[in-house]
Amino acid sequence: MYTVRTVRMDEFRQDAVRIALTSGLSRRQVAEDLGVGLSRLNRRAIVKSSV
After folding, report:
1. Contacts 24+ apart (CB under 8 A), 21-24
2. Helical segments of 1-37, H only
């Protein structure tokens, strides 16, 4: 069962990847701005861009 927090975290992750892929900023800058790990953002972006 999904909780509100789980849904919001999923949305946040999707938005972070979208920003990383479309903003023109480096992934390092996006990760720092959003307070997420660079390696995790990179992994999610690679998976998203290969789909």
Report:
1. 21/45, 21/48, 21/49
2. 4-22, 27-34
Tokens standing for residue 21: 């892929």
- What CA–CA distance (Å, rounded) separates 18 from 48? 9
Query: Which distant-in-sequence residues (6+ apart) come within 8 Å of 15 by Cβ?
Result: none
Q: CA 46 to CA 3: how far, in whole Å?
A: 27
Average pLDDT over residues 34-50: 91
Residues 6+ apart with CB under 8 A from 16: 30, 34, 36, 41, 44
pLDDT in tens, 19-32: 999 999 999 999 99
